[in-house]
């Protein structure tokens, strides 16, 4: 990555080599980083990443916007109605549809 680059991870904590990330931040190899997920999660008190310069840590809330919650509630409601009516579930995986 360029020294002006910012790394953002909202997927899984294990995707990022956190030791290498901390070293890159300390050495100025990248400009900064933002992690919504870590490994382990949550980071324990005293973990070296807490002291990494240019790092923003959030407590795995990247998808916790009200629109995402509202959509999830609607989907669950629709799935329950389909199940009660004997209809196939949306996005089903497997032969049985659930």
What report would you give on this structure?
There is one protein chain. The chain is α/β, with parallel strands linked by helices. It folds into two domains: 6-57, no CATH class; 65-98. It is built from two helices and three strands. It has helices at 18-27, 66-84; strands at 6-9, 32-35, 55-57. A three-stranded parallel β-sheet has the order 1-2-3, with no helix packed on it. Helix 1 (18-27) links the parallel strand 1 (6-9) and strand 2 (32-35). The longest helix is centred in the C-terminal third of the chain and has 19 residues, at 66-84. It is elongated, with a radius of gyration of 20 Å. 7% of the residues are buried. The model has no long low-confidence stretch (mean pLDDT 90).
**Class based on secondary structure composition and strand pairing:** alpha/beta
Please report the distance between the alpha carbons of the first and last residues: 42 Å
Helix content: 25-40%
What is the H-and-E element order? EHEEH
Portion in beta strands: 5-15%
Work out the number of β strands: 3
Low-confidence stretches: none
Task: Reconstruct the topology from this structure.
Layout: E1 6-9, H1 18-27, E2 32-35, E3 55-57, H2 66-84
Write a brief caption for the model.
This protein has 98 residues and is of the alpha/beta class. The chain has helices at 18-27, 66-84; strands spanning 6-9, 32-35, 55-57. The protein has 2 domains: 6-57, no CATH class; 65-98.
């Amino acid at each position: 990555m360029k020294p002006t680059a910012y790394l953002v991870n909202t997927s899984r904590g294990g995707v990022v080599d956190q030791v290498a990330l901390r070293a890159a931040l300390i050495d100025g190899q990248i400009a900064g980083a933002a992690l919504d997920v870590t490994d382990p999660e949550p980071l324990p008190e005293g973990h070296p990443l807490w002291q990494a310069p240019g790092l923003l840590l959030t407590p795995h809330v990247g998808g916790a916007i009200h629109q995402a919650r509202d959509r999830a509630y609607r989907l669950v409601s629709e799935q329950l109605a389909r199940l009660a009516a004997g209809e196939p579930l949306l996005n089903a995986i497997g032969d049985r549809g659930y």
